[in-house]
Amino acid sequence: xxTTLQPPVRPASAGRATPHKVLAxxxxxxxLLANAAFVTYLFNAAGVGSNKLINFGRLAGLYGALAMAxxxxxxxxxxxxxxxxxxxxxxxxxxWVGFTIFFTLVGHxxxxxxxxxxxxxxxAEVIRQATELEGILRAxxxxxxxxxxxxxxxxxxxxxMAYETWHFxxxxxxIAIFLAFSHQVAVGSTFRKSALATxxxxxxxxxxxxxxxxxxxxxxLYRNWKHQFRVAAVxxxxxxxxxxxxxxxxxxxxxxxxGQFFLWRFLTKDRWWQAxxxxxxxxxxxxxxxxxxxxxxxxxADIRNVEVGTRVFAEGPYGAFTTMHQIKPNALLVAGGVxxxxxxxxxxxxxxxxxxLYRVSDPREAVLLRELEGLARTKxxxxxxxxxxxxxxxxxxxxxxxxxxxxxxxxxxxxxxFICGPGGMTDTVITSLDELxxxxxxxxxxxxxxxx
Length: 452
Description:
By secondary structure, this protein is an alpha/beta fold. The protein contains 15 helices and 13 strands. Its main location: membrane.
C-alpha cells in the first residue's frame, strides 16, 4: 500500500548530530588502551629477566588477563553502553576480544613452557610445574576451557551447533576466568611485586566482576521486583503469529524505548528456564509492553499457550535501535520478516517524515500490516510493501538494490535509515545504501537475532 506523500515535517531538534556512539566507543578505547599501557608499566617495573621467552610469556599472560576483564565489561549489559552501541556492536567486540584471549593465552603457555624447558622438553616441564607449583594446575584447566570455548566459537563449529549447546559451553568461561585469576594471585610475579600492582589488579577484577553482577543480576532483579510483570492478554495476529501484552507497576519509569528488546522468561513450570529475545512491537506507553512472536521454533510456538496472569521475568530493555541515534529530520524504516516488530514500534515514536519499506516474499506474510497502514495514515508516512522472491528483478533492478531503493525513496541520502530483518536482507540494504552514498552514521541496523 502507498499513501500520498506529505511535505516533510522537520522537528526542532533535527540536524543535531548525537555523539552517543562516538562517546561510548571512545570511552571503551580509552579504557582499554590506558589499562594496556599501565599493565606494560607494571610489567617493566616488576623487573624484566634475561630469558626473552619467559618475558614474552609473562607479558602475554598479563594482556590475556586484561582482555578477560574487558570481556566481562562487554557482556555485563550495562545500560549506558548498550543504549549507545547496541547488542550487535557489543557482540562484535566480544567476539574479537574472545579470540584475543585465545591467542594471548596460547602464547602465554607456549612461551613460558619453552622458556623454562629443561632437557626433557617443554611438555615435561609443564607437567612438572603442574604437580609441584601452586596455581599451575588451575591455570592449565582454565587454559583448556578457553581453548574449547574458542574452538566452538569459530564460525565453522558455531554453524554446526545448536545455540543452547554453544551457550552452555560458553558459560564455562566464567569458571576459567575465576581459575585464571586465582592462578595470577598465586604465582603472578607482577601481581605480587608491589602494593600498586596488587591494588590495580584487585581493583580491575572487582570493577569487571561488579559490572557483570550489576548488569546481569542486580539490575534485572530490581526491575522485576519493582514492576511485577504479568501477562495481561494473548492476542492471535495470524495462524502462526501472536501478540502478548505485559502489564506491570510504574511502567512509565522503566525507561524502555521503541525499537528495543527484552529477554522474556514466562514463569511456568515448563518454561521458567527458557529466555526468548523479542522486540517491543508497540512503543512503550506506560500502561503495557507488547511483544509479537512468530512460531519459528519450539519456544516461540509455545508462547500462544501462555495463560493470562502468568508472571514474567523480563531482562532489558536492550538495544541501540532507537530514535536516540537519529541525526536527520526524516527517516526511512526498512523491515524484513519478523524484523517488522521493532520497526512498527519505531514508526509510532519517530519524528519527522517517514517512509517504510516492508519486505516480504508474499503479501499474506505481512505481519501487523493493518497496524502499519493505520499508523502511516495518522503520521502522514509512506508505506510501501516490497514483495517477491529474492530473485525478483524490477524495472529498476533487484528489489533492494540501489536503483530500486532510490526509485522508492529519492531523498534517501537525506534520511536516517533504520534496518531490521534477516542477516542477508540487512547486508543487501547496507550495501545498496553504501553505493548510494548514504553516510554510515545515518545507517542504523539490527539483525533480528539474539546477540550472545
